[in-house]
Amino acid sequence: MADIAKATGISRQAVYLHFTSRSELLIAATLYKGDLLDVDARLAPSRAATVGVERLDRYIEFWGDYIPEFYPVAKALMLAQDTDNAAAEAWRDRMRAMKEGCRAAIDALHADGTLSPDWSRPKATDALWAMLSVPAWEALTLDCGWSAKEYTRRMKSIARQSFTVGV
Amino acid sequence: MADIAKATGISRQAVYLHFTSRSELLIAATLYKGDLLDVDARLAPSRAATVGVERLDRYIEFWGDYIPEFYPVAKALMLAQDTDNAAAEAWRDRMRAMKEGCRAAIDALHADGTLSPDWSRPKATDALWAMLSVPAWEALTLDCGWSAKEYTRRMKSIARQSFTVGV
DNA sequence: AATTGACTTGACACTGTGTCAATTGACACG
DNA sequence: CGTGTCAATTGACACAGTGTCAAGTCAATT
Fold first, then answer.
1. In the prediction, which pLDDT does A72 show?
2. Which of A52, B21, B52, B128 is the most exposed place for a label (fewest CB within 10 A)?
3. CA nearest A96 in B: which residue?
4. Is residue A116 a contact partner of residue A163, using CB atoms and an 8 Å limit?
5. Contact B136 A133 (CB under 8 A)
6. B153 in reach of chain A (CB within 8 A)
């Protein structure tokens, strides 16, 4: 909080006039950044896709584009999760929203008959969601040095191979 | 530290007689638990496998068995990572060791000629490692409610489909 | 009987979050 | 012109958690 006050040029106490707690500030920052990034517009290509596999591909492309921009603020919220209930709830909420996108993509495969018989819709949703999780993205890009492009390309490939049949 | 002292029935200060800092205690606990679990013996089936795909399967089975036992202590170290350099280094070290196992499995596929042409050995190692990461395991088992058995079965399936060819 | 080692109590420094009271300066309204 | 309001200020404080220090206890060793 002191650092933020310093960076914005106001006193530490003044920060508390705007946000009642550290976690509230973090949550507000996350929501604000989410708005700035205009998720709905970015999701349009995936939502417009008529074929299941295309919907899946477009969704992963969305995510691969979105996460590097969203990550810095998301990271702070993710860390706060462990010491703060409100932050944990806010994070879970974001992740739930992301999972809905996964579910929609998997449902589109199912509607097409291209969902692999190995997977029920809920299980495939779980697996896709875990694959695309922020920590997994961190591991591949930050730790392993994958570019955003490579991340997207390879995740699409894994997802196709795992969840689709006969494409 | 106060909680640990209480749980062990000694004074808080006495804990510092044994471990100079919180992170040192965490690291020692992690190493101790690792020893108790006898990683080498558990890895034997994977190391003994002669066929690449079998080595991969046995490695994922090892991991699926191992991680639920190791997780409680690993989690504490993982969290300490963000505030403590020594803990971060210790965690990275554990993860490096785990990645070596991934590398060995991928190398075994390559030696067999069953590594998918989509993947170079390093990239496949990265991807397998990220797939099997602790946060991904947390997401699937703790958040999604997958059983250990299901986790293992499905991760084997994903890994096979993603990384092997013509099995 | 003296020494050693593990442990104790109690106090303290430091960091970070969050709260409170009193004050200042700018601006708008009647 | 004075008044009230609002945002912000300074400075102090409570509280939790980590880590340190000094002095003392107590049992086993020698």
1. 92
2. B21
3. B143
4. yes
5. yes
6. no
